Every structure is written in C-alpha cells, then in structure tokens.
Amino acid sequence: MAVLFLKGIKLRVYPNREQRAQIQASFGCNRFVWNQMLNMLITRYENNPELSLPSSYTLDYLLPQLKREYPFLKSVESTSLQVTNHDLIEAYRCFFKQHRGFPKFKSRKYPKKSYQVKMVNHNIEVVDTHQIILPKLGSMSFKTGALIKGTIKRVTIRRSVTNKYYAILLVDTSIEPLEKTKHIVGLDLGVSDLVITSTGVKYPTKRFDKQLADKKHYWEKRLARRRLQAQTQIARDHHNHVLEPRELTDFKNYQKAKLMVAKYNEKIANQRNNYLHQISKQLVEQYDVIKMEDLKTKNLLRNHHLARAIANQGWRLLRTMLAYKASWYGKQLVIVNPYKTSQVCANCGYDDGKHALNIRRWTCPNCDVEHDRDVNAALNICRA
C-alpha cells in the first residue's frame, strides 16, 4: 500500500532577464528582513533578558509595519518573508535551547543565495513537463529527471555559485513500497573500495576529484595569481586615496577564474552524488534490512595521508540517502557500532587484535580461516 511522504524534487530553471532581476530582488529583501529581525531580537534581549522567546508569528506581525517603512519589500512574495522569519526564530531558539551557534547577519557578497515560497491558493503550478508558474515570477521553463506527482507544499528558489538557477519542490506524494526480498546485508565502508557488502560484493571507489584535477588546478593557479594582483591594486588605490576604491568583485579576470574553479567543484560533486544515488538505490532494491557502520568521519580526517581520499568518499551522504530511501520503500536501515568489526573473526568470534591498514587479508589463528579484511568486517556488521 502506498504511503505519503514529503519528497524533494530539484528542477533546473531558466529565468529570463526580468525574472532574474526579480529573483535577485527577492534575495536582497529576504536578506534585509533577516538582518532587521535579527537586530531587533538582539536589542530585545539586551533590554530585557528575562523575556520569553518570541514565535515566528510575532515577527510576522511586524512585517506590515516594516513594509510601510521600506516599500521595496512589497515587490517580493510575502510568504517568502514569513519563511525567513520562521527560519530565524528556529535558529534563535536552537542557540538558547540546544546551544548551537548564534544566527549571523547575512552578507550580500555571499554568492550562493536562496529563498522559499509557500503554496497558497494554488500560486505554484506545474503546467506541463517543461513549464512551471511561480509567484511574482510567472511562467518559467525547467528541466528535471524526476516525475512531479503529488501536492506541492513549498518551493525553494536557489542560485548556485556557478550562477545556475534551481527550484527545489517539496512535494507531498505517495510512494509504493518495493517487494520484500527477505535478505539482510552488512556494509563496511572503506577507502580503496567505497562499499563492501557481507555477500562479498565490492563497489569500487571512483576518484572524481582526480579525474578533473589537472583542469581544476589550471584555474586554481590563475585564481590565486589574479587574486593577488587584485589585492595589490586595491591596496595601491587606498594608498593613493582613491575616492571609490575597487573591490575584488570589480576585477573581471578574477571573477572568471573563480567561476571556473566553482564549475569544476560543482561537476565533481554532481558526479559523486550520482554515483552514490546508484549504489543506494541498488542496495535498497536488493535487501530488506541494511546494516552499516557508524563511522566518525571527523576523527578519520585527522589522518593527513588519507584526508582527501576520505573526504571524496561521501560516507555520510550515502548514509543519508540509504536512510530516506529505506523509509520510502518500506526497508530498514540499522546503524552498528564499528568497534572491533575488522579484527574479530566472523567464523569463530576470536579477537585477533588490531591489524595495520596495509594488512588486507589475514588468517584466524584459532580456526585457520583466511579473511578478506573488509568482507570480514561486513559480516560482523551484518550479524550485530
């Protein structure tokens, strides 16, 4: 039986010049409201620290007054400002209740920007397979590899650092569970092989960062040199007391090199995400219960010889994909403590002690069974 889930669908949208200007104005207005409300919260706390934490509705009541004082706020979608208030209050509450970082003021220099729009009175509509209607923007063409089925709850309009525009739809849709296979698998995560299953299947590591390393390094060198040249020119302008000294954003050759580096980083991330999606989908289709180790990646990154290879693997992203896909399709993901999984014999349970990383195969001195280090760990994870 199909179950309702909230699902995110990413669309690549292609706004025209007027729509890009409207999106840019929305970025600015949402940033302005965030900064104004955050300043108000700080002042409120300084005046009376004993006051209870406000709700997002409290900030929403201030929006009409803020629009009267700053008429340019009327040009953007009102629900996007309400979402900004909600996000600010959540961050503000987390600081006091969960001791997270205090919300920061937003700068217009940050290249990656976004805002959200709620579905109100059918103001968001997908016309056909290539056209979507968004509030304040109108009709816009898009591309996507997923079918859009269900009720749209909200849309996030985002511009990436490579100046590409996306609309991420949050859709309430029904998903049919996959057929049960009655199989259980354990997953060991590694560096030479990305995923090793308890059945002996190994998904190899693909170093997408190395495949594009030369082209990326070509532009990284030019970016560093052009940044230094621009900073030297800016310092010279200050020394000569130029009335309007230039900033880094005014140097086109520097901006071009920065864009090219960002494009290669984006391509590497897209290739890695696509590979992880393929692996996670295969595992969810083949097994009813998936057990994987709970690796502390932050600790492993302290090994400077393997830090770049570990960062390339995307273990946490794979775990996230398996978690939501398992819930979608009626499967189960179990997280297992990896303690001694690679040194305990999966055949007899004998603890042979810690093995160096260069030892990939070992023989159990108790039962004389030869083990592949990673497959043995996956078997122990499966039986945990």
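Next protein, fold it too.
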Amino acid sequence: MKNIILTTLNARYSHSSLGLRYLLANLKELKNEAEILEFVINSSVQTIAEQILEKKPKIIGIAVYIWNAFDIGELVRIIKKVSPQTIVVLGGPEVSFQPLRVNFDMADYIVCGEGEVSFYNLCRELLDGNCTQPRTIHSPKVDLESIVLPYDDYTDFDIKNRHIYVENARGCPFECEFCLSSIETKMRYLDINVFLDELEKLWIRGARNFKFIDRTFNIKISYAKAILNYFLAKQEDYFLHFEVIPDNFPEELRDLIKQFKPGCLQLEVGIQTLNLDVAREIHRNLKIDKIKDNLKFLSTQTHAHMHIDLIIGLPSETIESFGKNLNQLYTLSTGEIQVGILKKLSGTTLDRHDKVYGMVYNDSPPYDILQNDLIDFSMMQKMKRFARFWDIVYNSGNFQKTTALLFEDGKVYENFYDLSIWLYKRSESTYKISLDRMAEFLFEYMLPKHDEELLANTILQDVMKVGGRKIPPFFKKIIPQNYDFAQKEVSKANKRQIVRQENE
C-alpha cells in the first residue's frame, strides 16, 4: 500500500511521463510512500480507477494533458464517488491555464505550473493533517539546478520497453501565439556536464531510445554540440528525437549531424507556415532563405529523418496559401510533412484574433478550429480528412513511389486534395483502412491517368518492400505471375523512418 499514487494516461504504451518522475524524485522523505502507475488512453476508466484504488492511497496526483483530459475528468468523478476520502490532485498543462474547458470540479486540488516543489509541500501538509493550501496552487518556476533530477526513477522496464524522455532546458525564446511554450520566453538550462552524466547513467542501464522535450534543441549551439558528440562517441545503435528550429544550423552543427547513421536521428522541424504575412500575424519569425537552405542540407547531406510541421487554419491564411506551403515544402525536403489543425490552447494569446478573423473553435479537447472567415466549416472538415489521409498515404512511408507518381506534375496539394475527397467518398472512413485496401484504392483512383501495368508495378513496389508480405489478391489479376520483388528486412523499431529513407 502507498500513501501517494502518481498517475496519468499516456497517448501510447511506448510513452512514459517525465513529469510524474520529476514529482516522484522531489518528494524527499515521502518518496518511499509513493508509486507511479501509468495507463494508456482509451482504456477502461473504471478499470484504471480500480487498479489505483487497490493501492489504498490517501493522495492521487494525476497529470492532465490535452489528449487525456476527458478521460481524466471521468476518472476523477469515479474515484471521488467510490472513495470520497481519497484526495485527488491535478497538475499538468491542461489545468495550468484558464479557462478550464473540461469539468474538474470534483478534484480537491489543482497545481498550476511546475509542480516539483509545490506538490511535495502539499502532500506533506495533507499527510500531516494541517493543510492550509488553497484549492488552486500557482507554482513558481523551479530552479533546474536545485531540484532532484528524475532519471533514476525510470525503471528497468521503462528502459527496455518505452521511450526515455529527457530535457536539458525549459522555455522557448520565441513568441508564437498558438504555442504554450511562448509563455516563458526566458530559457533555463541545466548544467551540461550534469546532464551528460545523467545520460551516461541511463546509457549504462541500457537506454537507447531518447526523446528530448527541449522546445528549441539547437538554439544554444554549444550545448547541442556537446549532446551530439556524446552520442556520436557511442558504438551501439540508438534513436534520438529532437525538436529544432529550422534556421539555426551553422557549419559546426552540420558537421556533426552528417555523421549520424540512418535510423539514429529524428528531427521535428517547426515550420507551421511559409507565408511571411501570416507568420507576422502570429508573432512567428521566419527566415525563409535560411529555412530553405537548411532543409535542403538536411535532406541531401544527412541521414536525419524529419517531421516538418504545417498548420491549417492560422489567422489570415487561406487554403490557397496553405497549398502553396505544402507544394513548396515537398520540393524542399524528403521528410514527413505533419499536417496539423490549429488548436486554441488556454494560456496562449491566440484568442486576440477571434473577432478579427472570425475564428471559431471546438470547446472540447483538442480545441481544434471549426471555421474562420477564410475557411468555412465544410471546407475545414475536408481539410481535417485531408490531414488524416495524408498521414496514412504519404507520411506512413508506405506509398513513396506511388505518391511520387501522383505528384509528378508538381501539384502536390491540388492532387492530394482531389484524392482525399475521392477516398472519403469511396471508403466512408478515415480509419481502419488496411494497407492492401489502400493500395487497391490508389490503383482505382490513379488508373484513368496512368498505364495499368506501370501503376500496378509502382504500387506493388511500395507494398512489397517490407519483407514477408504477400501480393494483395487484387493485383494478382494484373501483374505477371513471375513478377519478382526484392525482399527487404525492415527494423520494427523505426520502420516508418527506415522505409522512407530506403526510398530516398
């Protein structure tokens, strides 16, 4: 039995909560009375409540995020109904800023902001029976040099089965209005030698899958170089994920990135828009020439796999402007282009555009835009399906040769928009479409404009590049019986990334 249970619902089983481990690490004398229990969204909330309450905790601390807010709201209600004496404390970005758009009224306490110190103080007072804290606790920023780091609290099971999340800095120097990170423009860094020591301890324990949550990994070049050099010195395989700004890759950083082998390095590159007028409207600083040069460098001279972010629905951005952005990015990079839908998060200043541009958002998570003065509701719905099909067809890496054929005239947005409209009418769904079924759909859609055998062979080269696959039954009627495909073994760990790179 534990007095304190720390819990959350992660988006995937392979994810782990760095925030919970920070809380656990900083509980001081209460640490032995605490335990982390992690679950996954879309699990039975009643079963989750059952497993938590089996521990008979006095305090339950729950981390709330945009993806789990609804489930957490239900979880709180169930816990308080069946065990009203149990104290529920909420924290995390979804409850740190007003307005709260999910009902958390049954929670006993809400910790806003960084909770490493505040949560400990609250638990100590609650367990001592003399709590004087208000229901809503506003936590000040912590000193990264004075709090206990959380990395020893990753278990051996975590290291073997999950991504290990790490951070060397908090804050972001930019003021992009759609992003919560823009609230804190002052950067705070952990001493680089202390951080590298923590990485080494994790490495010795067997950690090989690291996700850095720093918002701008390459903003401080000396620290970025030290971290990259640390991993380049390792002889074993590993996987690293960094969020980077697209305009800051000096030669000294380029020289290091070029040395990483395929499958080792993944970069999330925030573009959002290439329209300078739109960027200025949301306080986003774009250096277009540098962005183009760096994307070309990363695509042609490195093995880094890229996730490049574009957003639909930004204030003052038309569909035509978004289409130009997509067409241009396709020519600049071979990486995945993550097509996202604008969300209005509590705490950001995005709401200042609501009246000017007629911005209308969903009041429930994920708070996505429904329409604005330039994109009506019907068109926004079409673009949400566009984004979903784009992920299935293009970003998956399953149809690289096929999409190259589809986009051969350079009209990436226009051609894929038409395809997405057709796909939705044909499938009546954006989910649970098998690889074989999508291959058949693509063949059916593209056949009027392409030679039958060429098209079939192109699609089959995509489908059959994963070793051990069988030719989809539909295509057996079209291709020669003796058609030979080179079988390739693809690592399960980073299949999506490696499949893409083999096509480049």
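About the second fold: Confidence is low (pLDDT under 50) at residues 485-495.
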